Amino acid sequence: MPFKKLHANIQEKLATLEITTPTPFQSNSIPVIKSGANVFCTAPKDSGKTTTLILTTLQKLKCEAVGSAPRAVILVENKEKALALYETFLTYTKHNSLRVYVGYEQLHIDVQKSEIFEGIDILISTPVTMNKLFLTNGLSVSQLKIFSIDDAEFLVQKSAYQALMSITSSVEKCQYVLYSDKMHPVLKRFESYFMEYSKIVST
């Protein structure tokens, strides 16, 4: 049972939310992600991918705030998805010290830089915005432990793809987890770059 081996804080939260049984996808993916491997997670909609992303991020960061630079990054397609994921994350982080921050194109980059400077643990952003933060010295990636991409099919867009390649070329050591409905040829291409020795979990 993957949930039984998660941090006590996470287990308490799942109990509060009355989530007791993992989906087949969660049973397959959580142990592999917890192992620290780079993982391509492919499963249809409503398989529990987003919940898996949140649980494994909290697990990796041990449900507690540390330092000021982000230790987890989650990239999404656009502002709407960023804000929706942020709201869902807050449900799980309400009773621990983790600091979640959301950034997107429409929010002025200087505002984002000053707020991130105050200290964050988890950054939810779009590739273009994160790359802009990075290029303007508004973001340190030196402490990154886990880098996830939700609904990664959007990386077929040239601007998102190029921004991601720019960011990952500067990240020295980190676990990458990509979530998508199915394996797209563009995603497979990342094996030659930052997804080396990756595993595939599919449902």
UniProtKB/TrEMBL annotation:
Transmembrane segments: none annotated. The keyword RNA-binding does not apply. Pfam families: DEAD (PF00270). It comes from Kordia aestuariivivens. Keywords: ATP-binding, Helicase, Hydrolase, Nucleotide-binding. It comes from the Bacteria. Residues 30-187 form the Helicase ATP-binding domain. InterPro entries: DEAD/DEAH_box_helicase_dom, Helicase_ATP-bd, P-loop_NTPase. One of its GO terms (molecular function) is helicase activity. The keyword ATP-binding applies. This is DEAD/DEAH box helicase.
